[in-house]
Design a protein that fits this description.
By secondary structure, this protein is mainly beta. It is about 15% helix and about 45% strand. The protein starts with 7 loop residues before the first strand and ends with a helix.
Length: about 200
């Protein structure tokens, strides 16, 4: 369980093709405090630490995960938003995030909005019912509030505002038009989606 509040920006040092991908990530964490088997959210993807050393840890990324996450996510040199798993008693500063990516969105537009940047994303129509104005959404592991949503026949567009702090402490400051990002809908919306699916077949 996570909150969508990024605590470090790591960088992929190497990617080794075994059965899955063994990805080594450089980070600023004291890795002595990270247990093997611990969960770390890597740009919104919950992964298990399988190796570690001073200033780095490694995770295995399955083919299923690669197929469901942003294009070029798992390449050497790629920066990743990192968050360690929530502990009982920690401050819940964002919203409840599971680290299970629901889809991939594409940056459609960036524009200035005061000191902030307004970002417009396009997402597949299947996720459109679960992205709501003033609701929560996770973009590459970052908890954000949706400003507005516009639906079309085959897609939906939604906007968020990135304040300067968010841009400086996450990878979202590097967004560009056409960039693919990982999206996780709010966990309550995910359960509502499942309830509707069951109701429709009853």
């Amino acid at each position: 369980m996570f909150t969508g509040i990024v605590s470090d920006v790591g960088r992929i040092e190497s990617v080794e093709k075994t059965g899955d991908l063994r990805v080594r990530i450089a980070c600023g964490y004291d890795t002595a405090t990270i247990d093997l088997g611990a969960s770390v959210a890597c740009s919104g993807v919950c992964l298990t630490v399988v190796q570690k050393g001073p200033g780095w840890f490694a995770v295995d990324v399955s083919g299923e995960t690669v197929s469901r996450t942003a294009t070029d996510q798992w390449i050497a040199g790629r920066p990743l938003n990192l968050e360690r798993a929530l502990k009982l008693g920690d401050e819940l500063g964002g919203h409840i995030v599971t680290g299970h990516v629901d889809g991939v969105a594409t940056v459609a537009d960036l524009s200035g909005d005061g000191d902030s940047t307004r970002v417009t994303f396009t997402v597949d129509r299947a996720l459109a019912p679960f992205v709501a104005p003033k609701g929560s959404v996770t973009i590459d592991g970052v908890s954000l509030t949706v400003n507005a949503v516009e639906d079309s026949a085959d897609a939906a567009r939604f906007t968020v505002n990135l304040i300067p702090h968010t841009q400086s402490v996450t990878t979202l400051g590097e967004l560009a038009v056409g960039r693919a990002v990982n999206v996780e809908i709010d966990v309550l919306a995910r359960y509502l989606m499942r309830m509707e699916q069951v109701r429709a077949t009853s």
